Amino acid sequence: MIECGSGSLRQNQHRSPAKKVPLPYVKRLWRLMETGLSNKEIALKLHVSLATVKTHINNIYSKLQVRGRLQALECARTLDLF
Length: 82
Fold this sequence. Notes:
Distance between the termini: 19 Å
Keywords: DNA-binding, Transcription, Transcription regulation
Protein name: HTH luxR-type domain-containing protein
Oligomer: single chain
GO molecular function: DNA binding
Order of helices and strands: EEHHHH
Pfam families: GerE
Number of domains: 1
Low-confidence stretches: 10-19
GO biological process, one term: regulation of DNA-templated transcription
CATH architecture: Orthogonal Bundle
């Protein structure tokens, strides 16, 4: 079990022990988040709406059980997601 954010993340026992590989789009989103771009700037770079970026980022926060961008980036590094 790996502690991350406000809770702990456990690997699903019914799945393969191999790490899930993020989709290329999500990887690109992470890279742009790391550079410090705003959600609006990320949306422009990815050619998607601001609402789409916010949805993806909020889904990431939820999966990592974090409350903000810095926590999410730290957690992703801890879990070696990228």
